[in-house]
Amino acid sequence: MAEALVVGALVNGLANVVLDRLISSEFLNLVVGKKLDRKLVEKLKTAILAAKALAADAEQKQFGNELVREWLDSLKDALYTADDLLDRLFIKAQIRSKVRTRLPHFLDLSGRKMVTKIEEVVERIEDLEKRKDTLGLREIQTGSSSWRPPSTSLVKGNVFGRDGDQQALIKMLNDNNHHNLSVISIVGMGGVGKTTLAQWLYNNKDLMDGVDLKAWICVSENFDVVETTRNVIKGISSGVCSLDSFDLLQQDLKKKLSEKKFFIVLDDVWSEDADKWNSFITPFQDGRKGSTILLTTRKVNVGRIVQHYNSYALKGLSDDHCWSIFADNASFPETNGSSELERIGRKIVKRCDGLPLAAETLGRLLRSERHVEEWNKILSSDIWEFRLANCKIVPALLLSYHHLPTHLKRCFVYCSLYPKDYKLDKDELILLWMAENLLQPPRRGQTLEEVGCECFNDLASRLFFKQVHNDDEKYFLMHDLMHDLATFLAGDLYFKFSEEIGEKEETSILTRHLSYDSSISKKTFSSHGIESLRTSLDINHGSYFARPTLPFDILSKNKYLRVLSVRILNISPDSIAKNLIQLRYLDLSWSYIVVLPQSLCNMCNLQTLKLREC
Fold first, then answer.
1. I need a labelling partner for 140 at 20 to 30 A (CA). Which of 52, 112, 316, 396 fits?
2. b vs e for 369-396, b when ≥16 Cβ sit within 10 Å of the residue's Cβ?
3. How far is CA 413 from CA 10, 116, 438, 548, 614, in A?
4. What distance lies between CA 530 and its chain's CA centroid?
């Protein structure tokens, strides 16, 4: 990891953005001394530096200490507010310098209000810094890590320690050859290797001999019977399915499966709803003998509604097999390796509790490191004591997260806006990172897009993203546990709106980043208290069936937006251009827009404009 790997706090990235703005020559020339008093600027810098020194300690102590977690959220909120205000002051100064219109100082009420708000932010940050003794926070000097991931691409590793499990499942499958339909569940906790084992079965040529049709379907938490049925048809029909009616879908699937031997994998199933399962399973009854639906799930009762059902409980691996996974991913030779590193590494592996994903992730983290002190840092970390939702894998993943450079931490957490099992569009994500100013400044001769590509590849090489090859399609996913970690770290600052959200889970007043899926959302979320959004992201904006989901007043209330994707039906694009001058990313696709307004030229920081199907 290089000579000095320092654990940086997520909040430091945001603090650095504000500090860099305060010292930039453009900001000093346009704003300081004209709109902002230099003493106020220095006071804000001092307050941020004092709080920043506490942030690294607070980020580690937030796990298991709700008061520290609230302190961190409050600090992030204050920093977001400071950056929003400074950014708006700077953009207005840019616009006025170009059009050469200046108001007399005593009439510039907007500027005076902004100054008052910045003074309030300074007080908030100073008050937070004063609470350090009460919360037991200490100053930790932070720096950036110069560790870079290996240049090799992410590849599928070997399957260790599953010979017995493989043979047991093969026997189960063979024993069911006299039934027209059997359902087998691989049950186990997150990270134990259920999907890996299912992949091995799915790609076993001997086992698949005689199988006419097979498909791999990722179901995840939202078990939609219609959508899952459609995906099965796509899986066995080379991705083609133009039917919408559930009745037609079931009739079509029944016809395709009739008198055929099929092997269907439903990966990561959560639903225990018997009615849904009874409805879904109907078209599968007429296959040839030996036809199988294989489930992977964390819940023991999933899939029990069928007559011929078996479940297989997948246990953790032995420490020796976990060590093999760890050593394989760390490129640590089984022979001729350092005896001291192996001694420490085996202790690290022992704390992985037999979970292969933990061993794989930590092995990749230490892949290029051969210094004993760095391995000891992993072994002695306090994070091992933390448990999130009874999930033992999380401490290992937290260690990987904490060893990311600050800018990669922020990019990773931003991905919490997407639902689980979402097919990440690399190029799209890079544009969003650019708009949110999450990337480091480009080197000479380098574009910001190239910087974003490096960040994405860095996260993928460290297993935060995994590449999926599915026939002719290639895409990236986040592992469920990585997604859980990103969502936990995002806290109240990020909010995903979905159909499953209850009344008590309304958006927080701290929310800065909001996402929703307009292709499935049938209701509009409450915008009460939301006035500082930076992101309003429709994650399925390209769908013809998308519906406007934003409350009518959300754009007028949230003037600091930097990312906006919305299907506009009753909102004037002119009002967007005039009010949302801080936008960097604007997607108005599928909107009834004929002419772009002249006021769009005021958006001097706009980087991305999408107008598909307008």
1. 396
2. beeeebbebbeebebbeeebeebbbbbb
3. 9, 31, 11, 26, 32
4. 22
Asked if pLDDT for residue 411 goes beyond 90, the answer is: yes
| Burial letters 307-339, b for 16+ CB under 10 A, else e | eebebbebebbebebbbbbbbbbbebeeeeeee
Q: 345 with 358: CB under 8 angstroms?
A: no
Q: Tokens at residue 528, please?
A: 């009460």
Q: What is the structure's pLDDT at 385? A: 63
Burial of 348 by CB count in 10 Å (0-12 exposed, 13-18 middle, 19+ buried)? buried
Q: Tell me the per-residue pLDDT of 153-183, one tens digit each, with 9 for 90 and over.
A: 222 557 888 999 999 999 999 988 888 899 9
Q: Running DSSP on this structure, what letter comes out for residue 458?
A: H
SS (H, E, C) 339-366: HHHHHHHHHHHHCCCCCHHHHHHHHHHC
pLDDT score, position 525: 59
Counting beta carbons within 10 angstroms of the beta carbon of residue 512, is it exposed (0 to 12), middle (13 to 18) or buried (19 or more)? buried
Q: What are phi and psi of 182, to 5 degrees?
A: -125, 145
Supply 428's token pair. 């799209």
Beta bridge partners of 535: 513, 563
Instruction: Evaluate whether 363 touches 337 at the Cβ level (below 8 Å).
Output: no
Task: Give the count of beta carbons closer than 10 Å to the beta carbon of residue 94.
Answer: 17
Distance from C-alpha of 391 to C-alpha of 381, rounded to nearest angstrom? 18
Residue 494 has pLDDT above 60, yes or no: yes
Q: 3-class SS at 187? A: strand
pLDDT in tens, 515-560: 887 766 555 556 666 788 999 998 875 555 556 556 666 777 888 9
- Smallest CA-to-CA distance from 75 within 136, 133, 9, 24 is with 9
Beta bridge partners of 527: none
What 256-259 contacts at long range (C-beta under 8 Å, 24+ apart), as own/partner pairs, is 256/213, 257/213, 257/283, 257/284, 257/286, 257/287, 257/291, 258/286, 258/287, 259/286, 259/287, 259/288
Cα distances from 106 to residues 40, 101, 103, 198, in angstroms, run 19, 15, 8, 71
406-480 folds as Arc Repressor Mutant, subunit A (1.10.10)
Q: What is the distance between the alpha carbons of residues 582 and 357, in angstroms, rounded to a whole number?
A: 41
Question: Residue 471: what pLDDT?
Answer: 66
- Name the residue ranges covered by the structural domains of the chain: 10-135, 163-313, 319-402, 406-480, 498-610
Contact (CB, 8 A) for 328 and 363: yes
Unique residue bearing structure tokens 């922020």 = 410
What's the rounded mean pLDDT across residues 119-146? 79
pLDDT value, residue 155: 29
- Tell me which residue has tokens 């002051």: 89
Task: Let me know: does 301 contact 277? Beta carbons within 8 Å.
Answer: no
Asked whether the beta carbons of 500 and 520 are under 8 A apart, the reply is: no
Residues 556 and 538: their CA atoms lie apart, in Å, by 18
Protein fold of 163-313? Rossmann fold (3.40.50)
Distance (Å, rounded) from C-alpha 54 to C-alpha 140? Answer: 6
Write down the pTM of the prediction. 0.69
